[in-house]
């Protein structure tokens, strides 16, 4: 596993998240489903801390994914693994938590969808560059 591929995958999470949770895509609906203003910057902590900790988690996820797919997974296998992990593990796990927390289906679609696409993108990056 190459460190630059891991870093690129982690950065891709931020680029995707910036677009996904922006007003251009799902930001307004996400805020409304969460009950108000963007909670990443108002009242829950300093934005630098929120984004810094989030980047560390992105690095952990990218590193774990790299270990899962191996050094040279091939594009098709890596994309298939990314889809399986994103939708089958992460989004499904969010679904369980969201049911118990009584969060909306729409919120699950946004958050689970983000992680499904995130890991699909990891698959593209690791499969193409690995």
How many helices? The count is 5
Order of helices and strands: HHHHH
Structural class, from secondary structure content? Answer: mainly alpha
Structural domains: how many: 1
Strand content: under 5%
Tell me which oligomeric state these chains represent. Answer: single chain
In short, what is this structure?
The chain has one domain (3-129). It is built from five helices and no strands. The chain has helices at residues 3-20, 27-33, 47-69, 75-101, 105-129.
What report would you give on this structure?
This protein is 77% helix and 0% strand. The protein has 5 helices and no strands. It starts with a helix and ends with a helix.
Notable traits:
single chain; 130 residues; mainly alpha; 5 helices; 0% strand
Q: How does the SSE layout of this entry go?
A:
Layout: H1 3-20, H2 27-33, H3 47-69, H4 75-101, H5 105-129
Helix pairs in contact: 1-3, 1-5, 3-5, 4-5
